[in-house]
Automatic annotation (TrEMBL), chains A, B:
It comes from Vanilla planifolia. The keyword Transcription applies. Belongs to the WUS homeobox family. One of its GO terms (molecular function) is DNA binding. Keywords: Developmental protein, DNA-binding, Homeobox, Nucleus, Transcription, Transcription regulation. This is Homeobox domain-containing protein.
Amino acid sequence: MEEEKAVVCPSSCSTAASSRWNPTKEQIGILEGLYRQGIRTPTAEQIQQITGKLREFGAIEGKNVFYWFQNHKARQRQKQKQESFAYFSRLIHRHPPPPPLSPAALPSNRVVCAPLCLKVPHVGLNDQSYPNLFLAGGALQKAEITAPEKTQQVHETLKLFPLHPTGVLEERYFGSSLTSASSETECGEEGRNEEGKESFPFFNFFGVQ
Amino acid sequence: MEEEKAVVCPSSCSTAASSRWNPTKEQIGILEGLYRQGIRTPTAEQIQQITGKLREFGAIEGKNVFYWFQNHKARQRQKQKQESFAYFSRLIHRHPPPPPLSPAALPSNRVVCAPLCLKVPHVGLNDQSYPNLFLAGGALQKAEITAPEKTQQVHETLKLFPLHPTGVLEERYFGSSLTSASSETECGEEGRNEEGKESFPFFNFFGVQ
DNA sequence: GCAAATTAATGATTTATTCAAG
DNA sequence: CTTGAATAAATCATTAATTTGC
């Protein structure tokens, strides 16, 4: 609840002593590039160098660079947490008793979960994270990715995904037409569908060392 | 390499042998509705549920839903990004007409600060977990910081900038202009201005409370 | 009007980053 | 410092729109 509405600098005070640094596109581009290059906490010297360079594109001080990196780093971290927490929270709310994919129901250790699984790696915050979801989705992956052929053809990738159209998402989402055509069959192994042509090359990326 | 699937399967052919999913209007409608409701990266379970529901309107698999959300999210962001950039660009370029500010187009986590100072690198939550940063920031002034107050918890960082220079700043970043800039005054330039014009208001920044 | 040709959308894959646990 | 986990960005590929010549 911090009022940050510090003066509404009229859109005309560009050269004036604005209250804050106003990074230009070029400046941001360079900063992000540096960040991507691995710079997280630049040294004083680096900051000076960067500042010197960025000054070509507009007024800037060392502190701006310093803060930029600090904020960017912090923001990147929190971005994840908050993001995932946000929608989880939302989803959970509309989902009183979350359908925790019962671990025992899993076919075997041949995990066949979804590829997108969970979002939150490990929030860790003092919030009651939702381990259920983590487990539900986290189980997947790391199945077996045979086919050492690195080519583009992935034969039998992990067939994680769909167990079947089970479940009720939520009336709010689909109205009442939700057909609970889901038995209890659970994941009868990756029984595949009739089509049997389901290959999920989802997260197969592993080629790059 | 590819089969000649001359299957002339006009829109609405569920038995299609097409190589890729072709969503029906109903499916798209539901998906967009879910997206509007905030679902961005559905969990495995959600995907199954959604898929189940969407199957009423045509053949579909979990991966299709997964991809749909991925693509839709990415493209929405892309569109929005472009939009907001255009806005800022115009705004920064000059301040002629306050265009139709599209609230939805504003970047959510961009550090871009328009002349209006609308975006602030606000870390938000537990940003107090960076006490060192303060110190580091203060340290930037180095020799000139003749105002040794503040600092609640001083470890020993009161020295030079960062202790861990993560990342190498090389010429490849800026070319030769960098070296020339760093070969001398280092951080003296900003840290030591007599007029205090640029004296890092580091602590002021935070002092705002 | 209708198809071949061309362009715009968008489904499906691959690649690059990021944070953080070990 | 290395590696695991999980995207999001970038890219490839195929389908739908549309444009154009007849």
